[in-house]
């Protein structure tokens, strides 16, 4: 009975979310085809295109992330995770940052996975390092960066290396700055069909569990998708509005200088909400117009923090932790971008360019 009630609630939430998206698309389509003198249809079309492309680009990755999160919930026990994690904190942070090299998930999908890992007992610092490194140094992102910056291998190396170091530093300092539960609500594991409360991995060879395999996957995936997806949609809506109605010339006009260029590129990364697998193609257009440090800052800051990710972080972690994490991300990325302004040109002079 309890399980039926939970499924009913989740189904209602999903139905409301899906119907809201459909209704929003329907209304946007109507507005696009209405000729009203006070409405600039070209601008409105741009807004609709940007918003819809964001949704279509991001939601599949959120669903993938939620599905991975569900498998972690159902098949990996707390005991297994604790055995895998190195006892040494520094080694654990290095291992967490390195996982990104073989874990092809973008920033849209990583937050639900991170939340599940924390619920399963992974130390917060290690989980945050994992969350930050994966969208920056995973193989798909590095390949797209290499393709976008053809002939400029140093950009790929700088993104991977600086992203790796930044993730470790952020994970290390957030572990020092915060104690206690980092999640927004008290740690709660969704109940499964077997009423295990999620406190063990499942063996679906057992007859009583095998029956509920598919329903458990659907239940956990839909729950994670709803919790994360609703915030992503709001963030995409805000970002689309900003991209459409805030003139970019005002942003570019103050983008000169080592400090200002970094701040402007951070602002662009935050407002544009570009997926980490495609942001290199946008950053390529700014190389030469802005400092190299600001371009690297764009490539490492964007996957860590933008409008949609901010809303997702605030919805996942408690307020104090989220604010500390956001400020830490901004500080570390800013320091790294300033350092890149000096280190990269110096390195290129020494080795002759790559």
From TrEMBL:
Subcellular location: Cell membrane
Short name of one Pfam family: ArsP_1
Keyword Transmembrane helix: yes
Transmembrane residue ranges: 12-31, 51-76, 88-112, 124-149, 156-174, 259-280, 286-305, 325-344
Keywords: Cell membrane, Membrane, Transmembrane, Transmembrane helix
Keyword Transmembrane helix: yes
Membrane topology: Multi-pass membrane protein
GO cellular component: plasma membrane
Family label: Belongs to the UPF0718 family.
Protein name (database record): Permease
Taxonomic source organism: Clostridium carboxidivorans P7
């Amino acid at each position: 009975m309890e399980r039926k009630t939970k499924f009913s609630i989740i189904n209602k939430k999903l139905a409301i979310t899906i119907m809201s998206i459909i209704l929003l698309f329907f209304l946007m389509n109507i507005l696009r085809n209405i000729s009203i003198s006070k409405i600039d249809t070209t601008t409105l079309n741009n807004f609709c295109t940007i918003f819809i492309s964001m949704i279509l680009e991001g939601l599949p990755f959120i669903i993938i992330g939620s599905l991975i999160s569900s498998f972690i919930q159902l098949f990996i026990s707390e005991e297994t995770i604790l055995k895998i994690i190195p006892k040494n904190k520094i080694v654990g942070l290095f291992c967490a940052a390195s996982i990104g090299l073989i874990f092809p998930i973008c920033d849209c999908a990583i937050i639900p996975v991170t939340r599940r890992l924390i619920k399963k007992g992974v130390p917060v610092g290690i989980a945050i390092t994992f969350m930050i490194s994966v969208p920056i140094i995973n193989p798909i992102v590095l390949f797209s960066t290499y393709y976008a910056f053809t002939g400029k291998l140093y950009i790929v190396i700088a993104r991977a290396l600086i992203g790796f170091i930044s993730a470790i530093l952020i994970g290390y300092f957030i572990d020092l700055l915060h104690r206690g539960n980092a999640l927004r609500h008290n740690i709660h594991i969704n109940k499964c069909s077997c009423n295990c409360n999620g406190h063990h991995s499942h063996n679906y060879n057992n007859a009583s569990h095998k029956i509920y395999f598919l329903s458990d996957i659907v239940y956990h995936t839909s729950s994670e998708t709803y919790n994360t997806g609703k915030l992503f949609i709001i963030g995409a809506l805000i970002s689309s509005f900003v991209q459409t109605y805030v003139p970019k010339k005002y942003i570019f006009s103050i983008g000169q200088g080592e400090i200002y260029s970094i701040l402007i590129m951070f602002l662009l990364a935050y407002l544009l909400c570009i997926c980490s697998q495609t942001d290199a193609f946008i950053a390529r257009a700014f190389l030469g117009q802005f400092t190299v440090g600001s371009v690297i800052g764009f490539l490492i800051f964007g996957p860590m923090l933008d409008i949609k990710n901010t809303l997702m972080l605030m919805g996942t972690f408690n307020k104090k932790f989220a604010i500390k994490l956001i400020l830490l991300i901004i500080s570390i990325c800013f320091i790294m971008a300033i350092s890149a302004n000096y280190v990269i040109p110096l390195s290129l002079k020494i080795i002759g360019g790559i």
